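Entry type: protein chain
Record version: 2
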Amino acid sequence: MPKHTSIPSSTKPVNEHDIRFLQHALALARQGTGLASPNPMVGCVIVRDRAIVGEGFHQYDLCDHAEVVALKAAGEKARGATMYVSLEPCNHSGRTGPCTEAIVKAGVARVVMATRDANPKVRGLGLEHLQSAGVKTELGPADIELDAKELNEAFFRWAASGRPFVTLKSALTLDGQLALPEQRKGKKREWISSEESRAEVQRMRHAADALLTGIGTILADDPLLTDRSGSPRRRKLLRVILDCS
């Protein structure tokens, strides 16, 4: 794994103006929920003279990373501009070429990122390449970095350990039960969760790649196990059922 790259002090420290555009980049990144996996959600904003000249977010099926989407939108206006991106730009080739090369070629003068990438293929190397090419680099404040890491918590877990990020969802009564007493006696089943919590469950499903449950739940409830958020996703939610038989 490459050594962590420290970001040197700059004559243009991150300010409220920078924070506003970093927050906008994070908002763009969230539009990639259900559309970016298995890649991380990334948003990018290019600003010149305090005006947005290009922006975009990553969608896996469209290949281009968020930085390239924003650069294409900005065109020649990217030269001398500042790029705000929710994640450290990549410096390796995969389905696409390195974003760092595209940034340097476009003449971007400064890159402000919300957080470093946890992927060993990227972490620190994107910064090193940009700095060696004369591009100024900045890291956002701690609260922005925390938001950026939380946004891609699942991807960071996979990149660091090769293991999936698992979220446990369970509706419980105040005394820690999964069903009301009369329901446990075979009477009519009623919701113990609210409409708001059920809507949140759908949001969680939309952000996930797979939904796992046990055969007991399948036999008792015959659940649909689907994403009913209404939001677009690039592939159906994978349904996984655990059964010991």
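Comment: The radius of gyration is 22 Å.
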